[in-house]
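Schema walkthrough. Field components (list of strings):
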Amino acid sequence: MNSIIISIGDELLIGQTVNTNATWMGKELNDIGVEVLEVLTVSDTEKAIEEALEYAGKKASLVLLTGGLGPTKDDITKKVFASYFNAPLVENKEALENVESFFLNYNRPILPINRLQALVPSGCDMLLNKVGTAPGMWMENDKAIFVSMPGVPYEMKYLMTEEVLKRVVEKFELPAIVHHTILVQGIGESYIAKEIADIEDGLPPYLKLAYLPSAGVVKLRLTGRGKNKSLLENEIKKTFEKIISRVSEYVFSELDISLEELVGEVLCDTKKTISTAESCTSGALAARITAVQGASAYFMGSIIAYSNQVKKSQLGVSESDLNNYGAVSEEVVKQMALGVKESMNTDYAISTSGIAGPGGGSEDNPVGTVWIGIATPSGVTAHQFQMGKGRNRIVEKTILAALKLVLVEVKSSFRIIN
Amino acid sequence: MNSIIISIGDELLIGQTVNTNATWMGKELNDIGVEVLEVLTVSDTEKAIEEALEYAGKKASLVLLTGGLGPTKDDITKKVFASYFNAPLVENKEALENVESFFLNYNRPILPINRLQALVPSGCDMLLNKVGTAPGMWMENDKAIFVSMPGVPYEMKYLMTEEVLKRVVEKFELPAIVHHTILVQGIGESYIAKEIADIEDGLPPYLKLAYLPSAGVVKLRLTGRGKNKSLLENEIKKTFEKIISRVSEYVFSELDISLEELVGEVLCDTKKTISTAESCTSGALAARITAVQGASAYFMGSIIAYSNQVKKSQLGVSESDLNNYGAVSEEVVKQMALGVKESMNTDYAISTSGIAGPGGGSEDNPVGTVWIGIATPSGVTAHQFQMGKGRNRIVEKTILAALKLVLVEVKSSFRIIN
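Field assembly_structure (string):
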């Protein structure tokens, strides 16, 4: 059982929209044991969609299409889909009732082109879309199963979760696919590879090791494919034990959880609280911390001090230090961290100030210079970084560095090596 | 001149990594007039990469590969790439010097597998990667041009910008591709289609109209392909003038700029300032506002009041109102907005409080309930929303609603219809 995802839409090819649908679908399919062979992104043209159906049907047993099911003329997937199966479009009563109730609920008049949404290829299994007007369509031929779904992410997710994944699990005996990832920090991928070369060489054919470097962290992922899930899990566990014994001082998590989840775990375990004072990250650090469910147990709040005036009035940063050292300085981030720690009455506080660019750099403080301060129950420290270029990248790297600093400070209760 | 992007990496297929590389490349290629026919994402296996090269070479004149060029064993793109061209791998002197200086700069010992990074297929045009160790490789055969690049985003971007795009522009006479997008709000795509049906039917074959609905906004995109760029631009301009005359009351921007950019423009034009007081968005709104270059001209800062304690101490929210009405209420968001407006001394202030879930909902305030407050020079108002389910989606919808409220409040100086 394997699949190809066909993502349809010019917006994906001209760089207007990121294809997050395929990412989400890939994860869900893997979780139930369906291997995703390829993702094929094509244009909204008859030729492109036809060829994609032909191509995918030859290679995979499950072909999932998203996109091109809107009511307007640029959306042609349904027409091509029906013609590929030589099936005329027929009105589906249940789908029509769904369209009508949708417009009734929103108190909007229904147009003729809205009713056309209820047409499906004859012989298709209509998948009722309770969160939109375009139904999903499940068709089978001698080659494969083909399912067409809308490209609107929450409509696609609804149909995948409520219909497609359930049906696939019921219909097929699926193999187990097990992924496990550990996080390593402070050592490059080539050095890890050298340390574990013999382990890697001795891997059985059903286990695959991957190195995924990014932002100062290398993820090591072992993937196992086979019939027996618990056997695979056990093999992966044993292999990682061997790997970890070789690079133990660099392993900072044996779970593939994000840094913000790790921070959450550490703070929950130690019953400590945190706040942030942000200049260059401007709330993005707080948003990251609270993206973790249950963050209200340890995160109290933040003061975003984008202007110097706010740094003074809300965080008590000294005007003379701002003048003497500038906003991007050791002195200022220390005062920012201490200021928010006191006013929000937290155990830890972290502060950021940097030059995200593209303007604002100087010879002493070029674009990418970031100071991070951290106040703890025992004092305050500040750390300088050079984060390179690019506004978003500087903010992202600053968030990661800040989260790591929190982990380092609370490490007495947690297995982390910087 | 058209292209296919081949993205290589299991992490893209199992949902571990979003394929942002292809999005970025699609945009850049379009900008220079290279149409992207397809994006094909494949696994790190010899068979998959070989078949992808074969497939793409038949369809496109430019095939761009990313991924699989790391030094570790899971990275096999270079080997398959060389074998596809029957070209042995040979050491490239310039690439080797680059690898050596890279390790020298970071003061790390160079390993044998790092030196292997300097091997390239014989006959290839080596593209020097000054920000990493894996060189780009440009190969041509009778079918197409093939370029292999690393998958690390900033290395790929460096090679695309400094080498690939420049060479393509020099080598080929490229057609013009012109996209223009306008933003429409408060009307569904099917109603727009009805209003402009005759305009759409009369479009010349070189113009294509697309409807992209998302989060309460419909983007209308016209794409023109041809030889004469200014002619296309003119045609698109004239067509949009006709379209806008039909739905003028719903058009809220004639540029494809984000809501946060619009907010920035409006505030700059009127020389007004803003601050935020955030509970459920927890800094994400401030981060969005400051993602716009030059935001420091109008954004002063925020108070993120995740806990009720901080709502009281930092924003002056009344304890009795918190007790009587709860944190997610009209009274509380009004006080939050007024509180931050006063303490940060801004012209406008916007506040958010809601139930992002999955826990915390009640019968009166189910998950997805969000109150947004907005304080202006003339007073304060509050607005209730039901944002549906899903933590990230609730936050995202709250950000969009908040930005729209700002635009509506400052609309006297700006052409916006709610």
